[in-house]
């Protein structure tokens, strides 16, 4: 960790962590709404109304998430939970890609577990949004946010038992995670056709992929890429034809809409 951060008092460190998460949230939401506005006429995913008060409800969920992320990450940094090594480009890149892959695996299991009857109530807040907005990404209960902290803090802790991580590599991944999560919940499809193939979606999903999870409920548990759904057999076989429909300017008009396999 940079010496400037180690020297901070607890409250100043908390303020710095809060500025990071709140700042990334604001930037990502602004980008998400800009993308929605730019593509509303040509690539809208669901042409259906939001529920009454949806933005207000989701804003509250975002506030819960940012507070929990701030407290958890501040405490973890203060307690030295994650072992950091000297900064280098290689260590930074390895930390970023280890988190990129690790979070996908971690999130699939967390998400799948949250759809189990025993604990599904912690996940209902996020699913209140059947048609998503950029604010939906971090709209969740405090218990679900704590589950995410397993990925934000527990995962790097685990990796750092093997080898020290790069502080800036981890910061870069968390910024990418927040940005991708929020922009990725926009109700439009910016993904170019060339990036919508089965091969390409192993690395990054089309936006519609997770929109279908909100509309249908029991499949597509992945974060960011289809990789884990493909390995675990939880991928629907009709998303590509629905992608084609949306990409050619015809939004889906029912949450139950099915495409050709
Ligand atoms: Zn879910
Ligand atoms: Zn979601």
What pattern of helices and strands is seen along the backbone? Answer: HHHHHHHHHH
Outline type: globular
* End-to-end C-alpha gap: 49 Å
Oligomer: single chain
Question: How would you characterize this protein structure?
Answer:
This protein is mostly helical and 261 residues long. The protein has one domain. The protein contains 10 helices and no strands. The chain has helices at 3-6, 10-39, 54-79, 89-114, 124-127, 142-162, 167-183, 207-216, 227-232, 239-247. Helix 2 (10-39) packs antiparallel against helix 3. The longest helix is centred in the first third of the chain and has 30 residues, at 10-39. The model has no long low-confidence stretch (mean pLDDT 97). The chain binds zinc ion (2 copies).
Spell out the blueprint of helices and strands.
Blueprint: H1 3-6, H2 10-39, H3 54-79, H4 89-114, H5 124-127, H6 142-162, H7 167-183, H8 207-216, H9 227-232, H10 239-247
Helix pairs in contact: 2-3, 2-7, 3-6, 4-6, 4-7
Attribute tags:
binds zinc ion; mainly alpha; globular; 261 residues
Short description:
The chain has 261 residues and is mostly helical.
